[in-house]
Amino acid sequence: MAMADHTGGVLVVDDERPIREMLVYFLKSRGVPARAAVDGVDALSMVRQGPPDVVLLDQQMPRLDGVNTLRHIKELAPGVRVIMMTACATAEGAQVASELGAEDYISKPLDLLDLLHAVQHPPAGIGAVPPGSS
């Protein structure tokens, strides 16, 4: 039995359902393929099935927090771009996320246009997620 191709696009990982659903809806409305995971454990399962291009990863979640999820994502799929999201941004948190391979560390509440720009326009040398890619 062949599995559907679930690679590429953006994986939104946030335990807060309204935020998760809003981000997926917003990205899809802008032509960016997006799917959601309810926490770090769910996210790792999805990455194993087919890595996304970008992960929008909440820092504070039950079961497996964002920092440990980031660590595991980078072990499973080193080329996946990860953007950490948090309601409690700290310089220390940003440094840890950067050291583990996060490309950006952004504070909630999120500016959706800035977030879209970060998803579609990565730092030099890293591939962007063009609209409609999968």
Can you give keywords for this protein?
alpha/beta; 17% strand; globular; 5 strands; 134 residues; 39% helix; disordered N terminus; Rossmann fold; five-stranded parallel β-sheet
Task: Give a verbal description of the structure.
This protein is an alpha/beta fold and 134 residues long. The chain has a single domain, classed as Response regulator (Rossmann fold). Helix content is 39%, strand content 17%. The protein contains five helices and five strands, in the order βαβαβαβαβα. α2 packs parallel to α3. The protein is globular. It starts with 9 loop residues before the first strand and ends in a 14-residue tail after the last helix.
CATH topology: Rossmann fold
Low-confidence runs (pLDDT<50, min 5 residues)?
A: 1-5
Helix-strand makeup class: alpha/beta
The residue-averaged pLDDT reads 87
Count of DSSP strands = 5
Note the total helix count.
5
Q: Strand sequence of the main sheet, in spatial order?
A: 2-1-3-4-5
Write the layout of secondary structure elements.
Elements lengths: L9 E4 L3 H13 L4 E4 L2 H10 L4 E5 L7 H11 L4 E6 L4 H9 L4 E4 L4 H9 L14
Helix pairs in contact: 2-3
